Amino acid sequence: MASPAASGEAEAPVLPALLLFRRRLDAAFHAALRRRYHLLDFFASGEPLPAFLAGAAASPDPPRAAVVVGGGAVRVDAAFLDAIPSLGFVFSTGAGVDHIDLHECARRGVAVANSGTVYSTDVADHAVGMLIDVLRRVSAAERFVRSGLWPVQGDYPLGNKLGGKRVGIIGLGNIGSLIAKRLQAFGCVIYYNSRRPRDSVPYKYFLNVHDLASESDVLVVACALNKDTRHIVNKDVLEALGKDGIIINIGRGANVDEMELVRALKEGRIAGAGLDVFENEPKVPAEFFSMDNVVMTHHVAVFTSESRSDLRDTTIGNLEAFFSGKPLLTPVLPW
Amino acid sequence: MASPAASGEAEAPVLPALLLFRRRLDAAFHAALRRRYHLLDFFASGEPLPAFLAGAAASPDPPRAAVVVGGGAVRVDAAFLDAIPSLGFVFSTGAGVDHIDLHECARRGVAVANSGTVYSTDVADHAVGMLIDVLRRVSAAERFVRSGLWPVQGDYPLGNKLGGKRVGIIGLGNIGSLIAKRLQAFGCVIYYNSRRPRDSVPYKYFLNVHDLASESDVLVVACALNKDTRHIVNKDVLEALGKDGIIINIGRGANVDEMELVRALKEGRIAGAGLDVFENEPKVPAEFFSMDNVVMTHHVAVFTSESRSDLRDTTIGNLEAFFSGKPLLTPVLPW
């Protein structure tokens, strides 16, 4: 066999095909994937999804793995999986996998992994920052100062102290636990609701969200989105939280009944909200724009340059594990 | 002696006179003072300060105590003390006493007390909130969302992770220590500078602010303002902090050389700032208004309804201690 040196040109390695469904990938991440895989990039293809998948399935080396954007625009459902039967592994660049039909994946033996805990501390930090912001009116004060009102208008509504607040966390997973740990340092009292009580934590457990809301000053939504947690914060829960209560949502928009939240805020039935997620992103209810007691960010709780590079490492680590038949690093459905 | 009942009218108790220099006092606080003291209210009088003090000094019951606003509009200096020789006690409603000439007070045997620690946790919380806000671009994201740009403009600069950041605290007093405790829960590394190292803390001590800045990602100004700490953050310190560095100031505006800070931010020589205080409040340098990496609040780090009622209790507790010859609760200069 002729060596590359002998033939006078570098031998092109045969890279495994990889389906890519992520619109914005930083240059370093893109290069790291390209070095290892033959990328079939959906968003770059400009094709409709069925045509794109059909083309990939018909190629000489049909892709065995896909990287899909977290919380995303593309749903990995039965139709998707039917279209590309070679698929054995789906990696989601988010922690949530509500856009992946796990049942259908499990049925077909398709492994699923997610971003694991790469975002957890950033999301927890963001949640705490938004809570301080709502309680202490930081963003409202920012607008006040930037509009030049300080020298003109003396009075300004007081904020509220964080210490001593009873914070009810919905979902005491990785992120919820990190939020709890941080808020303890501020002197908050931590309560929680989750599918089952956790033995290892000292926080008071509530069997349902309604009771949690009744006893809490602040509700933090930190659970995954699934059929049981869709609108887990509904009209009744907002009522139970009460007029001095504050909602922080860093889970998914649909964990909260957004129209009821708008109504409760408009009518002063709750005191404020810090929202990183919305039901119909990137649409935000226009009513929020005139509310000084609402702090909104555009689903950026995970967005730091540090988490971005951690995500790159986690993505490639999982892909390499899959292609070499080793255990996935951050499995959701390990097969 | 005729009893009030016998004379048919309530005997008006003779209340001790109290000088009051605070423009805005909530109704409950005002009522609590009025029940106990005959208030000589400078801002309500409309008089120039010398006339007001001369009138008070000439009254049959010249005031022995004064309540002055923290960080304030009225300076208790030699001229002030000369004008009202009956004065034996000054209470500042702020923690800082840079508006009170302690040397002149000490020389005349005038006791001084301040608000003690009533604001400490609120200020520490606010400092942490502003740091998260600057790192994670919360207020900038708020503007982005409120201006309707989310659906239109996809890309947005990434924030930075709080965990692992080296935070240099200038002044490890009550507030600085509470900031350190909170930031430890986020995984920050704490460094500090203060007049002398503190035995009881595990944080690395730096003998001067320049070295602290060189080793830190974030500088938090949490010291009192005095001649040694005026412009303690100057051009050299900003240079040492460097282009990825962030300044948080919840001390006094004049702790930072504001014009140098403006320049450093404009020229990208530091990365961002969170400022609750300014050199010439309520004036804020207009250059800040167009900077997305600056978070500004209008000296509200102490402003919560909880700290307000704690302040009322502390003020009255100190006044009652002074008038009954007991030790002050929160003395600065106890005589």
UniProtKB/TrEMBL annotation, chains A, B:
Keyword Oxidoreductase tagged: yes
All copies of domain D-isomer specific 2-hydroxyacid dehydrogenase NAD-binding, residue ranges: 128-301
Any one GO cellular component localisation term in the record: cytosol
Domain of life: Eukaryota
Entries under Gene3D superfamilies matching the protein: NAD(P)-binding Rossmann-like Domain
UniProt keyword annotations, A-Z: NAD, NADP, Oxidoreductase
Coiled-coil blocks: none
GO molecular function, one term: hydroxypyruvate reductase [NAD(P)H] activity
InterPro entries attached to this UniProt entry: D-isomer_2-hydroxyacid_DH, D-isomer_2_OHA_DH_cat_dom, D-isomer_DH_NAD-bd, NAD(P)-bd_dom_sf
D-isomer specific 2-hydroxyacid dehydrogenase catalytic domain span: 65-332
Family in the record: Belongs to the D-isomer specific 2-hydroxyacid dehydrogenase family.
Protein name, entry field: D-isomer specific 2-hydroxyacid dehydrogenase NAD-binding domain-containing protein
